[in-house]
Amino acid sequence: MADLKLMSVRKSYGQVDVIHGVDLEVNHGEFVVFVGPSGCGKSTLLRMIAGLEDITGGDIIIDGTYMNDVDATDRGLAMVFQSYALYPHMTVRKNLSFGLEIAKVPRDEIERRVAEAARILKIEDYLDRHPAKLSGGQRQRVAIGRAIVREPKIFLFDEPLSNLDAELRVATRVEIAKLHERLGATMIYVTHDQVEAMTMADKIVVLRNGIVEQVGAPLDLYNHPANLFVAGFIGSPKMNLLDGHVADVRPGEVDVEIAGNIRVSVPVAHRLAKGDAVTLGIRPEHFLRAGADAANLKLTVDFVEGLGGETLVYGALPGASQPVIVKLDGQHRIENGTSLSLAMQPDQMHLFDSNGRALQRASATAAAA
Amino acid sequence: MATITSTSSRWDAFARQWRRGRSGYMFLIPWLIGFFALTLGPALASLYLAFTKYDILTPPVFTGLDNFRYMFLQDYRFRQALQVTFTYVLWSVPLKLGLALLIAIALDKGTRGVDLYRAIFYLPSLIGGSVAIAVLWRQLFDRDGLTDQLLQLLGWPPGTSILNNPDHALKTLIVLSVWQFGAPMVIFLAGLRQIPQDLHEAARMDGAKTMQRFFRITLPMLAPVIFFNLIMQTIDAFKAFTQAFVVSAGTGGPIDSTLFYTLYLYQEGFAFFRMGYASALAWFLLIIIAAFTALTFLSAKYWVHYDDTR
């Protein structure tokens, strides 16, 4: 168990910068997830922490020790690879004990740790098989076991579930979360799947193009995305983003006009001037079905997905080019092409300025429009 | 009546088949002639001759096991030839494979201009087995050769030709063979590139240093390629002939110190016209090579692991 500090960590390949000065603190026992679209630099950042990639600038500090020039072999970290990277010529037992033998751990201690890891991961029955004789899920467990036996300072996971089928992915996700709870170890986990990030992380680091867009607890990111990118990336289905402008400014509140001359009052603390371009964000689950008379939003329905527990409605607001997704609890009979009357929950709306930065809400209890 | 019809229809079917495949068979003919007339025929003939006394000029006389009895019980040159050949195989094969692997690893590090170096290092394998190079080596190491002059500079007495010294002649031929490491090197290089990078990275994360990774990851992962190279090079080494023939002018000298098995076989057959005995020698060499290959195959299950996870 250890803490980790990244200070202005940079990476460039020749002229191309792939990581632009990342600052990050990871505390003892934290589960941190790096999430972002492909090519955002999350795996590169993880490999830099591991020591498998050189860093171009900045400092990596683990437990107060500068690691910049320490080779991967001496950092005392363990990594679970996307491809599992099991040694094909060794049995499962050998795969697990390899790192301990290298470290000259006494034989009985090795046996104890291997047995313990095998028990935790339920791979006791395969210890004498070669990786080729295992299924994908079993190989994944062995790869995790190889990390566990070493009792590393920090566990690093590089998209470990992406080669598993959907069902196994969910099951393994839960197991890794449980494992974290049980070991209390510091873990850093890379994924492009925001559901994995939301469900496993104590702290999510959202990356785009080698820049940290936001760091925070999963629900903080969901409730208070710092910018349009995080707003669109966290949450499924995605947040609806509607272009508009400021129509009126009142203390603690602005009126935003979006396409179709629809006016919405949003409680924000920031100073805005009349006519400023803004983007209004509202998550699909924060629409309400309203009576035809009370509602000022009429959604023209394109398509409906009934999932049983919830219903997803795809459509567009009159005069708006941007599509809108609405998520309603339970089951609804809605015909394609009809008009759906909706209301927005004002305290759940997000407003972004013309640079894509979120404008802080006045307060969660602001009065409805 | 019925039989005649059926026979003729079978003939028709055969004729149709022939017409359809005719051009294919025509293309096969040169190869078939080569195989039967130049390989299988002589091989079977030599198997018979191995049990005869045959001087080429008069018809072969069947002598039973006489050739083999003489070979194993009386022929001291046969023993010398075996010893020379085994010494050669046991030294040149590991040395050559070791050097080939070393160079392959150096080239695999992805230095600039790898392709050029690979071609340069492969060159000796293309030309090294040729008579011209053997002649060149003879000039280098012979009395008054370049090495002789160099050794004189270092204070050795003149005329100490390495190739004329029974203590050094075979060593020189071993070095000459190790120099032709190109073919196994290219195969090693391909094998090294097949090892997934993330295995090396996983081993690094497991704390394994460069040498530990080499012995515990690279070598075992290369085992199938080492196995292949070992068999090919062993067979090649047992069949070594040209260099010994050229540097010793076909004598196997000095004092039979370069009397390779194949050279002895050649002398018996084409210098002393004991073709029956030469045939017996040839078949015994085949048995030796087969036995070595079989041993290597049997040992493989203890050290060769095929990666079938992907």
UniProtKB/TrEMBL annotation, chain A:
<dbReference type="InterPro" id="IPR047641">
    <property type="entry name" value="ABC_transpr_MalK/UgpC-like"/>
</dbReference>
<dbReference type="InterPro" id="IPR008995">
    <property type="entry name" value="Mo/tungstate-bd_C_term_dom"/>
</dbReference>
<keyword id="KW-1003">Cell membrane</keyword>
<dbReference type="Pfam" id="PF17912">
    <property type="entry name" value="OB_MalK"/>
</dbReference>
<keyword id="KW-0813">Transport</keyword>
<keyword id="KW-0547">Nucleotide-binding</keyword>
<dbReference type="InterPro" id="IPR003439">
    <property type="entry name" value="ABC_transporter-like_ATP-bd"/>
</dbReference>
<dbReference type="Pfam" id="PF00005">
    <property type="entry name" value="ABC_tran"/>
</dbReference>
<dbReference type="InterPro" id="IPR017871">
    <property type="entry name" value="ABC_transporter-like_CS"/>
</dbReference>
<feature type="domain" description="ABC transporter">
    <location>
        <begin position="4"/>
        <end position="234"/>
    </location>
</feature>
<dbReference type="InterPro" id="IPR003593">
    <property type="entry name" value="AAA+_ATPase"/>
</dbReference>
<dbReference type="InterPro" id="IPR040582">
    <property type="entry name" value="OB_MalK-like"/>
</dbReference>
<comment type="similarity">
    <text>Belongs to the ABC transporter superfamily.</text>
</comment>
<dbReference type="GO" id="GO:1990060">
    <property type="term" value="C:maltose transport complex"/>
</dbReference>
<dbReference type="InterPro" id="IPR027417">
    <property type="entry name" value="P-loop_NTPase"/>
</dbReference>
<dbReference type="InterPro" id="IPR012340">
    <property type="entry name" value="NA-bd_OB-fold"/>
</dbReference>
<keyword id="KW-0067">ATP-binding</keyword>
<dbReference type="GO" id="GO:0005524">
    <property type="term" value="F:ATP binding"/>
</dbReference>
<dbReference type="GO" id="GO:0055052">
    <property type="term" value="C:ATP-binding cassette (ABC) transporter complex, substrate-binding subunit-containing"/>
</dbReference>
<keyword id="KW-0997">Cell inner membrane</keyword>
<dbReference type="GO" id="GO:0015423">
    <property type="term" value="F:ABC-type maltose transporter activity"/>
</dbReference>
<keyword id="KW-0472">Membrane</keyword>
Automatic annotation (TrEMBL), chain B:
<keyword id="KW-0812">Transmembrane</keyword>
<dbReference type="InterPro" id="IPR051393">
    <property type="entry name" value="ABC_transporter_permease"/>
</dbReference>
<dbReference type="InterPro" id="IPR000515">
    <property type="entry name" value="MetI-like"/>
</dbReference>
<keyword id="KW-0813">Transport</keyword>
<keyword id="KW-0472">Membrane</keyword>
<dbReference type="GO" id="GO:0005886">
    <property type="term" value="C:plasma membrane"/>
</dbReference>
<feature type="domain" description="ABC transmembrane type-1">
    <location>
        <begin position="82"/>
        <end position="296"/>
    </location>
</feature>
<feature type="transmembrane region" description="Helical">
    <location>
        <begin position="88"/>
        <end position="107"/>
    </location>
</feature>
<feature type="transmembrane region" description="Helical">
    <location>
        <begin position="25"/>
        <end position="51"/>
    </location>
</feature>
<dbReference type="InterPro" id="IPR035906">
    <property type="entry name" value="MetI-like_sf"/>
</dbReference>
<dbReference type="GO" id="GO:0055085">
    <property type="term" value="P:transmembrane transport"/>
</dbReference>
<dbReference type="Pfam" id="PF00528">
    <property type="entry name" value="BPD_transp_1"/>
</dbReference>
<feature type="transmembrane region" description="Helical">
    <location>
        <begin position="173"/>
        <end position="192"/>
    </location>
</feature>
<protein>
    <submittedName>
        <fullName>Sugar ABC transporter permease</fullName>
    </submittedName>
</protein>
<feature type="transmembrane region" description="Helical">
    <location>
        <begin position="278"/>
        <end position="304"/>
    </location>
</feature>
<keyword id="KW-1003">Cell membrane</keyword>
<feature type="transmembrane region" description="Helical">
    <location>
        <begin position="244"/>
        <end position="266"/>
    </location>
</feature>
<comment type="similarity">
    <text>Belongs to the binding-protein-dependent transport system permease family.</text>
</comment>
<keyword id="KW-1133">Transmembrane helix</keyword>
<feature type="transmembrane region" description="Helical">
    <location>
        <begin position="213"/>
        <end position="232"/>
    </location>
</feature>
<feature type="transmembrane region" description="Helical">
    <location>
        <begin position="119"/>
        <end position="137"/>
    </location>
</feature>
